[in-house]
Amino acid sequence: MAGAGKAIVKANPEAGLLWEQLMYFQQEEIHSISRISTNSTNTRLAFVAEVSPRHIVQKQLDAYNARDIEGFIATFSDDIELFKFPNEPMGKGKDYLRESYGSFFENTPDLHCEIKNRIVLGEKVIDEEFLTINGQNYSAVAIYEVKNGKIAKVTFIQ
120-158 pLDDT, tens per residue? Predict the structure, then answer.
């Protein structure tokens, strides 16, 4: 048995198939199954999978809207890089996030981001956002790149 994306597959050369799908997981949270194990009687199955990029980005958005700085930062890799489109560096690392978003969260009681459209393509999540900040409304696009279960890069288009 092996993992193939969101599926568990088994080799079956006798049936003329190299691999046959045993199970496909519809749950959004399951993504990229990497390891599988069964007990000695094959009645129990355990597997390891990454959390889907969509789920990670949504968790980040929920923390943003709650102005929860620690929950927000937890969704990012230690060496997170932020850019203004196309490739103008804005900042790097969790310390940068804490400095730039910490006081922003504290001082913006009406802060809210609504997703108008979300596209998920592999490890990239592209959000069309409608933001409310200090009584003003803004439209923006954020491109999130997820690696190893964390947001590793964000590019903003405004």
Answer: 998 999 999 999 999 999 999 999 999 988 999 999 998
72 CB neighbour count, 10 Å cutoff: 22
Looking at the chain, how many residues does it have? 158
DSSP state of 124: E
- pLDDT tens per residue across span 66-106: 999 999 999 999 999 999 999 999 999 999 999 999 999 99
Q: Which residue has the tokens 């790097």?
A: 92
Distance CA 138, CA 128 (A): 11
Q: Vertex 120, ends 23 and 34: CA angle to 5°?
A: 40
- DSSP secondary structure of 134-150: TTEEEEEEEEEEEETTE
Both tokens of 135, joined, read 């009584």
Residue 117, beta-bridge partner list: 128
pTM reported for the whole predicted model: 0.79
Decide if 125 contacts 146 (C-beta within 8 A).
Answer: yes
